[in-house]
Design a protein that fits this description.
Helix content is about 90%, strand content about 0%. Helix 1 runs antiparallel to helix 2. The radius of gyration is 15 Å and the shape is elongated. The two termini are about 15 Å apart. The mean pLDDT is about 90.
């Protein structure tokens, strides 16, 4: 029981951190996209980061 609770707390904390990072990266991606164009290399790199963070969030969410 304790192990499940610890894992849940860890995943919950990790999920919150990921959500903050996802939102910050998403906002940055939009800002760069508006400044440089949505197909600029910088926008694409940030978009790929957002994708990786979302994939990590999905892994954690499906583990619970």
């Amino acid at each position: 029981m304790t192990t499940q609770l610890q894992r849940y707390r860890y995943n919950s904390t990790l999920r919150k951190g990921l959500l903050v990072n996802i939102e910050a990266a998403r906002e940055r991606m939009i800002r760069v996209g508006l400044e440089e164009g949505f197909t600029s290399q910088n926008t694409i790199v940030i978009s790929q980061l957002v994708d990786r963070l979302l994939n990590e969030l999905e892994k954690i969410t499906s583990a619970d």
